[in-house]
Amino acid sequence: MTSKTTLKKISANLNLSVSTVSRALKDHPDIADETKRKVRELAASLEYEPNAYAVSLRTNSSKIFGLIVPAIANTFYDSFIAAAEQRAKENGYSLMILQSGDDPLLQTENLRLCKANRVAGVMISIVPGSNITSFIKLEETGIPVIFFDKVPESDSCNKVCLADEEAAVIAATAIIKHEKKQVLAIFGNAELSITQKRLKAFIDEFEKRSPGTMLTIKHCINSEEAFSVTTEYCNAKSIDTIFCMSDEILVGVMKALHKTDLHIPTDISVLAISNGFLPGLFKPAITYVETNGYQLGNLAMKRMMDYLGGQTFSRSIILPARLIEGGSI
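Above: the chain sequence. Below: its structure as tokens.
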């Protein structure tokens, strides 16, 4: 009966007009308290639910946020989604979660779906080489766009980011502190600003504090590539430390190390930038710089609600990083 119960049926049962029933459910001040009570009681007993699609057509928006991530099967984005969904529910919203797969065409299709569903706002971690013109145009129609994690360079956007430079400096400092001299540093997609920021800060720190360290920089877009690179350099036995820019890279690195006779940390050290879940699965636990997806999800949703509350100016919010000691270095 839930799907068939309409305002018209409620009005017929109570001998009231549809408009009176509608206003009673909205707690309109012109409707008598007794009438509101009767309408609400009957609506509850009939399990009436407003037609969300009809409401969105009437108001030109919905109580849904579009959330576009590269992949759901990723511990960082999984924890981001968990926080964003919880905060959305607390504010009376729900999420429409879409995956881009780092594909520009799929990202464009996801944005089209958001428009078609009249979302109240969009949160997105963009794919490499994204043209953000379409997102700017969307925001000009009154629909806020919050970029997170992988964000555009433009200062005219709302961005919620990890402290990318700080995370890289913390990682470099930890390696230098342990006097490592032959470091394989594996970074992500070279086209992404998050990679560029971390790479520059990482190299700058070594040039400033340990110029004698031999740095080998490699870029890998997935764990399979990280596995291949790690295998190559471990076989050559030319490194004493491996730095992983992300959890996905860490997976490939550890898979490769498990196929060698190298022991952590006596033969080789490992340090990563991580969401925090994967490092604890290994023995010894991997030392990592924490970049917390759950906390970032909270910040992104807060920025979204602030925007809807009237704070429509552009701003960048940075989530600080910190070193979590394990036994891998």
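The chain is about 45% helix and 20% strand.
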